[in-house]
Each structure stands twice: as C-alpha cells, then as structure tokens.
Specification:
The structure is a homodimer. Chain A contains six helices and 28 strands. By secondary structure, chain A is α+β, with helices and mostly antiparallel strands. Chain A folds into three domains: about 120 residues, DNA Polymerase III, subunit A, domain 2 (DNA Polymerase III, Chain A, domain 2, Roll); about 90 residues, Proliferating Cell Nuclear Antigen; about 120 residues, Proliferating Cell Nuclear Antigen (Box). In chain A, the strands form five sheets. A nine-stranded antiparallel beta sheet of chain A has the order 16-13-14-15-28-27-26-20-24. Chain A has an eight-stranded antiparallel beta sheet with strand order 8-2-3-4-19-18-17-12. In chain A, strands 7-1-9-10-11 form a five-stranded antiparallel beta sheet. In chain A, β27 and β28 form a beta hairpin. In chain A, α1 runs antiparallel to α2, α3 runs antiparallel to α4 and α5 packs antiparallel against α6. The first copy, chain A, is elongated. The model of chain A has no long low-confidence stretch (mean pLDDT about 95). The interface between A and B is medium-sized, with 31 and 31 residues. β11 of chain A pairs antiparallel with β23 of chain B.
C-alpha cells in the first residue's frame, strides 16, 4: 500500500471518522482507523461497534488530482496517534507507505514516522443494509429533528429502549418521539417518498448526537436507509451507520392529553430566562422544582425555595390566560429543555390541572410538541 | 446595608475576585465573597487563604454615578450562587439590601432573590503590608516575566520552596528564577527605584498564574509592595495579595555553565515544531525523551523511539554549529517549554558535553536564560 495525499484533505476525513472512535472500547482494533486504498481513492473507517463512520476521499475531484495512488492495500493505524501526526506534519504533502505487511511509513518534508499498524482483515465487517427502505431529508431539517427530540431520551439504562428516539413512519409523515417517562418530545415531519417496509425503529440517542455534530447546516439531502438492525445516513462523502435498539417502544400517543382546563400564551424567551433564574435556587435541591402560579391581569408568578440557600420570586407578563386558575410545580430543567426545543417563538402551554401532564407547543406550528409531568409538592 | 448598582460593573468586579475563590477550601466562609459598602463605593473581596483579590467599585467615576449608596454595611454571600444570580438578572439595575442582619435581597426588574448571607466579621482579616518596599513595573512586562519563568516551578510538594518563583533584587535588577531541579528558567529585568529592604522572596507559582490571568496586556504600571510574608500587586482597581513561601531558595547561579564545547544557532520556531512532532512518539514512553544529534553541513537530526508505538526521525537545517560534534538526549516537554519562553526568536543553544546541563537563550537578548539537564540514555 502506498499513496500521496494532501494533508488538509486527509485531516478533514480523519476529523469525521474519529468522532466514532471511543477510547473506552473493549475491542482493541477499534482504537484504530482503517485505511483502504483502492484505485478510486482512500476510504477511512472509524467505529465503536455501535456507530461506524466512513468517509471516502476520491483520487480525483473536479478534474484535480487529490491523491496519487501508487499501490492499493489496507492497514489499521492507532487513531489518536495517526491523527496528531498528520496534524503536525511540516508540509501539505504526505506520503503513506506500508511495507513488510504492517510497517507503516508516514513521510512529509524531511520528517518520517514509522508506526506499526494492525491487520485490516481483523477489523469488523460492516453489516450489509439492503437499499430497499430509503428516503431523503435535507441536512438542516434532520439536525432540527434531532435537536428537538434527542434531549428527552432516558439517561439511565434501566429501560434501554427509552435511551433511543423512536422513529415512526405513518403515511407521509415521519414521527419522532423521545421520552424518559417524566417528559416527552415529539416532532412530526411531512416527507415525500417515505418507505413502507419498516414502520418503527429506535435510534440510540448517542448516535443521533454524534450524527448532529457531523451534519452541516445545509439543505443538501441526507439519504437514509433503514433495516431492522441498522440505519445508514449518507451525505456527500460521509457514511454514518448506527445500530438500532431492540425491544418494543411504548405507545406514547395515549399519554398526550387533548382536553385542557388552562391555556396560557407567552413569550418563550422571556419565560425561559425566568425559569433559568428560578433554577439557580431550585437546582440546589435534588429535584430542581419551580412553582408556577397564574395571577390576575395576564401575569404568572414563578418561584422557588431552597431551605439552605434562600428563595426567588418573579412575575412575568403573559399574552393571555384562558380557563381555570392554576398552581403547579415542575422540573426547571425539563421546562428549559422543552422551551429551547420550541425555539423561543410564541408558545402556548396547555394544562389539565396541577396533577396532570401538560403540553407546550408553538402557537404557529403544530409539528413540535413537548409534554412534561408535573411534580407533586406538599 | 443597601445600594443600587449597574449589573455590568458588579459583574466585572465579581469576575476578578472569584478568581481567588476555590471550591476546595476547608474554611467555609471563604466560599463566599465579602461585600463592604462604604460612602465611597463597594469593596469586593475573594480569597482562598493563599491568594486574596480585592476590587473597589467607586460610587462615582469621572463625574458619573455608578452606585447609589443608601446604607453602608457588610455581608458575605456564597460566591458561585451570587455570581450566577447577578449574571442572569433581567435588567442592568440591581438593588442589594441586607435586612435583619443576614437576610439579603437582590432585586432587578420584577425578580427578587432572598439569600442568607454570612457574618462579614467572621471573614479573615488581610495582613497589613508596610508600604516601605515598593516598586512599579508595567503590566505587560510583568506578564512576560511570569510566563517566562513560572512554567519551570516544581509540580510536586517534596521541596515546597521549589513550587515558587524566586525574586531577587540585586542593585538595579530584578532576577526571577524557577527550577524543578531538572530544568531552570531565569529572567532578568532592569528596573528603576527598586527597594533595598528585601533581597529575596519566593512567590507561589499558583499565585503568579492567577495574577497573570487578571493583568491586562497594557503598559499601565503595577505597584508591587513586598514584606517578608506577603506580596501585594496593585493595579487601577484590583489589589492582589499572595502569601510568600517560607524557606531558603537554593543558590542556582553556580549551576549555570559558562564554558561551552558546542554552540548551535537555530530558528526557534522550526526547532519547536520538530520537537513537538518527535514528542508524539516520545511521550508514549514515561520519560518523553528525544535524541538530538549534530550532522555535517549545518543540520541536526531529531529522533525518538518507542518500542510499542514506533519511531520518528527528522532533519532540520540550523544556522550554524560551532565546536564539537554532539549526541544528547533530553525531555521534549522541557525543551518545548523553554523554546516557548524564548518566543521563537533566533535561539542559541550551548552545550558542555552529553552529560552536562545546557543553556538556551535568544541570540539578541541575554535577559532570558533557560537551562535543561540532559537525560542519560544507554
């Protein structure tokens, strides 16, 4: 194996695939990056067994030569070390050569590194995904969908399926739901050409967070291919594979109330800042609970009390209050995360009494719904 | 106690004094910030017992009222909480009032926090420093002096006095020395009006690092007042007190060689990058050792070898080599830190054989000297 490549292009590729590599892996070869050199270019692969990221650097692009391929072949190099070496090389021309099976030479200017690689044939094979169930979504829309749901997955592994986001395909809609059983986030997206072979999958929250870091804020399409065990997200040069979570995701639709006793419209940003302040006192207690109370003249009172620290109290004006008076307590953290997901637009909060779950959504847009269970205080 | 203040000014002051506060303190009241309100303004104090930082916010500045003082008094408020509350207040007008001894009310807009403060009379008193031994130094020069020496202090407490930087006053020169007994950094500064009452003090490295963060890159003078136990650095609004280390600092002057067998002039920046690359392999071994070898035709070879990882080898051109051929090994970390302290100018390295300490300095400037002990390799 031997090729010459521009350092900057190699670095870009390494930046993508290293995101999949975990130093905590129990499979030693997965601390490495697999390099496959073919006649068409160089394929880099990084994986932590759950997530696999591949990026392909073509030998030629728009008629310009990017890589000079002298001899094809494969090798696995320790990821952290290889990355840092490439980053610190003295010139933009890099030559990588493997001799005597695993002896790898990295040359640039008058610098030469010798590393001992690992046998690429020992690197785990990627699962095959049939191209049957496939659809497209713009990258920036996919990023929004991720950000608006993934924060609500369960952190604990006590019900593993809740650590993922449930994606459901119903007719022409993708419905994404996450819940940790104390709150729920739901995002609906209308899309064309959705497949009908697979109805429901659960994608690990961790995978979606990593995918979000890799996707750019562009409207370029991301091609999504689903199977029962794996999902593949494909952009221009990056392939992002994630395993799926097993087990049945609970039916959450009947949790969402559809009759309400108190409806409050307010400015999400002002409300978020007030909750953030109240949380300074609230979070010193274990539960991070704030109290919310309707007042007359379209105002609400937010307060919190921690016997050891002190208390906070504040009134904010709201646009309108319809229905019954209300005193309710909830987690400041959940409320802040829900408000951030709705992007501080005009928000409507709909309550069904102090002991029942309540929902938040944008006044203008029904596609994002956030649900929070109140906290009982005595 | 009661006053109204602009939030931004209060925040600036809090930013300075919180740098002294450590969450690891064993003295509970030192997790707090002391607020003293007098007729002239507000004095904020933070301390971890070793370092104390004070900042004074005047009631009036350039004819503008900054603080409206209603009632004088003092209180101690939990630093982290107070800081975050002030940062998140809804308006730029803040009112702080203490009622019933320790009950503190912080008001802004329609937000009100109630905190329980601590009794200011329980806050440790600052030591008095006589104004006798006093001199001035521009802030940017003081920052350079700190950065060029403090990295070389000992990290371990086995010889406590070596965790500080020794400041010596000799005639019209301030001589600053730090060593961990494997390498040494020395910076000389010519200054006018140096005091003659105190010849040698040792300032904790940690204090100098914190001071460096507070000082701005300006040529404004910093007034320095020394006693046998304390040093005070005074800028426009900030007073920075540090306790001094006890014990005799070793006489380091006789460690510095003055006869040399090999003199090498080179570009500090090129050399630093080459050592940085070699260190990628070297640091995987416990000692982080690189090998340095003179070649013919004004070049040197830098190499490192780690049985588990691999090796690296590189040649760099130098400006000149005078004297004997040389093969020597040293810590890559020490070499990089020394080169950074000399700021990548034209550097001269002077050796007295492979087993003896060697020195680095700028070709143009004698005020910074770095000394490194080589590592014996077999």
């Amino acid at each position: 194996m031997k090729f010459e490549i521009m350092r900057d292009r190699l670095l870009d590729g390494l930046n993508d695939v290293t995101k999949a590599i975990s130093s905590k892996t129990t499979i030693p070869i997965l601390t490495g990056i697999k390099i496959d050199v073919t006649d068409n270019g160089v394929l880099l692969t990084g994986s932590d067994a759950d997530i696999t990221i591949q990026t392909f650097i073509p030998a030629e692009e728009d008629g310009n030569q990017i890589i000079n391929i002298v001899e094809t072949g494969s090798i696995v190099l320790q990821a952290r070390m290889f990355n840092e070496i490439v980053r610190k090389l003295p010139t933009n021309d890099v030559e990588i050569e493997v001799k005597n099976e695993l002896q790898t030479h990295i040359r640039s200017g008058k610098t030469e590194f010798h590393l001992i690689g690992s046998d690429a044939s020992e690197y785990p094979l990627l699962p095959e995904i049939s191209t049957e169930n496939r659809f497209e979504i713009p990258a920036d829309l996919l990023k929004s969908v991720i950000r608006e749901t993934v924060f609500a997955v369960a952190a604990s592994e006590s019900r593993p399926v809740l650590t993922g986001v449930n994606w459901n395909i119903e007719n022409d809609e993708l419905i994404c739901v996450a819940t940790d059983s104390h709150r729920l986030a739901r995002r609906k997206v209308k899309l064309e050409n959705l497949p009908n072979g697979i109805e429901s999958i659960v994608i690990p929250g961790k995978s979606l967070n990593e995918l979000n870091k890799i996707l750019g804020e562009t409207s370029n399409p991301v091609e999504i291919t689903m199977s029962n065990q794996q999902i593949l997200f494909k952009t221009d040069h990056v392939l992002f594979f994630s395993r799926l979570l097993e087990g049945n995701y609970p039916d959450t639709s009947r949790l969402i109330p559809n009759e309400f006793k108190t409806n409050i419209k307010l400015d999400g940003k002002t409300f978020l800042q007030a909750i953030d302040r109240a949380s300074l006192v609230a979070r010193e207690d274990r539960n991070n609970v704030v109290r919310f109370e309707t007042l007359e003249d379209d105002a609400v009172k937010i307060s919190s009390n921690s016997p050891e620290i002190g208390k906070v109290e504040e009134q904010i004006p709201v646009e309108s209050i319809e229905g019954e008076e209300l005193v309710i307590s909830f987690s400041a953290k959940y409320m802040m995360e829900a408000l951030k997901a709705i992007h501080g637009q005009d928000v409507i909060i709909q309550f069904t009494g102090a002991m029942r779950p309540f929902i938040l959504r944008s006044v203008h847009d029904d596609s994002i719904l956030q649900l929070i269970l109140p906290v009982r205080t005595y």
